From TrEMBL:
Organism: Variibacter gotjawalensis
Keyword Hydrolase attributed: yes
GO biological process assignments: protein catabolic process; proteolysis
Residue span(s) of domain Adaptor protein ClpS core: 17-93
HAMAP family hit by this protein: ClpS
Highest rank taxon of the organism: Bacteria
Keyword Cytoplasm: no
Annotated signal sequence range: none
Protein name: ATP-dependent Clp protease adapter protein ClpS
UniProt cross-references to InterPro entries, sorted A to Z: ClpS, ClpS_core, Ribosomal_bL12_C/ClpS-like
Lineage: Bacteria, Pseudomonadati, Pseudomonadota, Alphaproteobacteria, Hyphomicrobiales
Keywords: Hydrolase, Protease
GO molecular function, one term: peptidase activity
Quaternary state and interactors: Binds to the N-terminal domain of the chaperone ClpA.
């Protein structure tokens, strides 16, 4: 007699949430405050009061989280914003880091 063995394969579909990345604005001594505000508005779609608050926090504390995005979006926006400063010869810098 033949024994048929049927293998049941269980697939656990665990959907991992992609890690989010923070875009961080770093303070420097040279970039004009108004220019920082302009860049925040242009790249991160912030209004005047939101961008002023973020700029002032970075100015006073050394850095400020601007927003969180999927990794590629965070990196692209950080580069775009940093490049706008670079075009004007400012050392303005946006970095990215993964959320815990
Ligand atoms: N510290 C700059 C100044 O006094 C303004 C500034 C604020 C620059 C925030 C960068 O992330 C920054 N002109």
């Amino acid at each position: 007699m033949k024994t048929a063995t049927k293998i049941h394969t269980k697939t656990a579909t665990k959907t991992e949430r992609p890690k989010l990345y923070k875009v961080i604005l770093l303070n420097d001594d040279y970039t004009p405050r108004e220019f920082v505000v302009l860049v925040l508005k242009a790249v991160f779609r912030m209004n005047e009061s939101q961008s002023s608050r973020v700029m002032l926090t970075a100015h006073q504390k050394g850095s400020c989280v601007v927003a969180v995005f999927a990794r590629d979006v965070a990196e692209t926006k950080a580069k775009e914003a940093t490049d706008l400063g670079k075009e004007k010869g400012y050392p303005l810098f946006f970095s990215t880091e993964p959320e815990e």
